[in-house]
Fold each of these.
Amino acid sequence: MTGKYTDTTFDFVIIGSGFGGLCSGFILADEGYSVCIIEKNKQLGGNLQVFSRDKVIFDTGVHYIGSLDEGQLQHQFFKYFQLTDKLKMKRMDADGYDIIRFPDGKEYKYGMGYDNFIKILVTDFPEEKLAIRTFCDKIQEICRLFPLYNLEENISPEYINNTEFREINAEAYIASLTNNVRLQNVLAGSNPLYAGVKNKTPLYVHALILNSYIISSYKLVDGSSQLATLMARNIRQRGGELIKNRKVTGGVFDDEGLLTGVTLADGSMIKGKNFISNMHPAATIDIFGESRFLGAYRKRVKALENTISSFSMYISFKKDSFPYMNHNVYYYMVEDVWSGTHYTTEKWPEGFFICTPASSANESFAEGMSVMTYMRYEETEQWAQTFNTTSEVTSRGSDYEQFKKQKEELILVELEKLYPGIREKIVDVYSSTPLTFRDYIGNYDGSMYGILKDSNEPMRTFINPRTKIPNLYLTGQNLIFHGILGVTIGAFVTCFNFVDSKKIIDKVKNA
Ligand SMILES: Cc1cc2nc3c(=O)[nH]c(=O)nc-3n(C[C@H](O)[C@H](O)[C@H](O)COP(=O)(O)OP(=O)(O)OC[C@H]3O[C@@H](n4cnc5c(N)ncnc54)[C@H](O)[C@@H]3O)c2cc1C
């Protein structure tokens, strides 16, 4: 690569165009800095990437977004990013945006708005009004503790070091509210949103994510990639540059240990004054060189457990054959909603997440269906040496295809029980494994949401945006929390190292 990219020294070079990288790029470009975002894939957006089969658009990593009603947090962020007038969104069913379904066929609906959420669940559990109310109060109380979640700028060291509320375990807290096991499982029923682990997931993770969806839930119509496309357009309008299909392979340093540029796979170099990595911290360490990070930090980051990966199945339907569902289904084949991350291969899957993507072409019938279930990276380890993305197309082999077909069939058998006759409506079935996520996102194990937060050691899983390399910073889902809302907040935390936090928060509030 030559020309304007290689001749310029950018104020900020951002490695990776996941939503966290794009948000950081926007914030800095909007403040007048020159920004260059480098993305290894052909498509921008990381987990916002979509693909199309049989003319159906499938999302790969974002199926619904919370707190998008006028004035709510994500809506206010999207306004600041100048997205709201262009985004195609669909508000989900107010009386059941998520349905939690158990092996006995009983379904429980999550209502939108706390009053509605409580009202619907109290109908199912009339004896448990106090437990349900206490749960909702606690969720909201915890959310109030996070300054940026409430558009407050005061991130004091006391707040960062206050580990007490971070040590509350989600499963244990819910179990302390009621002896009704079914209610416990209902209240934690959407835990695949953060790949919850029974003895580890903190209540604050459950609270921040569940709260954002309870207050309002939306699907993106015609694919989540629109978020990346619109952000890229807005960054370019502010003078920013985005380079696609170029992988960052290393760093160039001066004698003082400052990064002066990143090298790309084609041998060229992009120069910058400051650098932000949207990659997983472990991958960041490897790219810039282990010796440049403190041994203890390196060891800690590399030893941190990641959330489990996913086997995702995508179904295209015959025209007007399967009704569009304006809600998601969390389908459990076991009573315990926490056990799925520790499945045995003999009893796989223990449950899955089901949604039908929203399309502007057909509001009554679904064009397709996405089904996601947990899968450990080790299950695909025998093909670990293969690499396959649209930038570098290779076959992983017929045995891999066979493996996927077997897994698809296990899921289809279950789907038949839930939706009798579904097979006749299907045009084709496609699937992706942990290797797909690994290759497209650039982490090591296809982890869905990055580093697993642990209520037993909350500060150990805390990742600071600053690194030992003075002008290299981190952003993305490993920082504060994952999801579109989590990485948006994370981008602000990263950028507050360079911009006036009060000024930016005021800009968001007044957007
Ligand atoms: C199956 C699944 C379902 C999900 N569902 C939802 C949902 O419904 N709602 C929601 O809010 N969130 C959801 N999430 C979570 C959400 O998608 C992520 O938390 C978020 O998108 C991560 O953003 P990020 O900024 O960390 O970047 P990522 O999306 O992790 O992207 C990182 C980017 O860096 C690039 N990169 C890596 N290495 C290099 C390199 N060497 N050179 C150049 N570029 C590089 C990658 O190609 C990628 O584009 C889901 C995630 C998964 C996996």
Amino acid sequence: MLNFPTPYPNELIYSTIARAGIHHGITSPKQLLEEVFANRKVIATIDLPSHLICLLTHLSPNYTLEKIVYEHTLFPIHALFSPENTRLKCLHWMGSQSKGSIHLALGVAASKVKQITTHRYCRHCLEEQYHQYGEFFWSRIWHIQGANCCSKHKVKLSEFLPTAHLGGRHQFIPANIIQDLDQLSKPAHELDLIVSRRVDELLKLTPTTSPTFHQWSQFYHRIAKRLGFNKASKHIDHSKIHAAVIRTWDLKWLQQHHLDELKSETSWLKAIFRKHRKSFSYLEHIIVLEALYPEDWTWKDIVSEIHQMPSNPSNTDTQIQGTEYKDISILTEKRNEWVSLTLKYGIKSSRLKNAALYAWLYRNDKTWVILPKNN
Ligand SMILES: [Zn+2]
């Protein structure tokens, strides 16, 4: 497809595809699928779409699969909290086919935190988009559960309900279909504003390897200890954590997001301070961090703190301690660069394309780079 539109900052790739239809005057959803994906069975997915490799053929050469996924889908709000092998598997599925595997693997399908299934928008942002770009588009930050308001204009997001003839599984609905911009928007809920800001920051984070369950477990244990919320060195005083969470988040708000079960033995809040055996959602992490950290915390600081912890309980671990290289942020950067290169070109070509990078990793991070999954 020639003249495929360039995605706007924070635009869902779903929205760019819908705009491509408008720009090319394609009214049939099936024909749009044929032109963009050469496949009439692709489902129009808002949050975590697949078949994205096809889009690379329409976009300018500076786009990579990782760039589309991290800048134009909701992947970053889940990736950091899923184990590294899941993150890489999902990146691969988003490039090719998924058949629902991504939502299962990231725990989105089974999560208490329900996905947003409608189209949402901030009317003030739409007006600004129109002034700046001459058209509307769907922003990523409007489609995240908990982030139910616009942090810039401090209003509750409005909902667009497609009429029956628009609701098909294969239909990419363009944002310029919204017409009732005159309706007044309601003021934002203070707690939604916190989530919107945190989620916005999370979406802008540079791609990074995911912390292990062991690192997340140690991280939360360390927070509790730092605040004196532990009884003995190993036992956490859950009542103190509960009190802190309730001070920041009101129960009604937590109820709306199905996260109000805080006291039972099986509650998510207790589980996040125990040994992690599964991933927790971005919303659960935000609720705890916001309640227990000073207001100026950032995801960047937290990620860098976590990456410095041992990645698994034994010292025979091959991840960070296996290497002699001490600067973990550079190491993570190099690893990420290698992973995105191999996703795009495969292992053999990547070694030729960036021999210097491979040599660097071989020198500084041999155990990692020669692992079968990385090589
Ligand atoms: Zn807005």
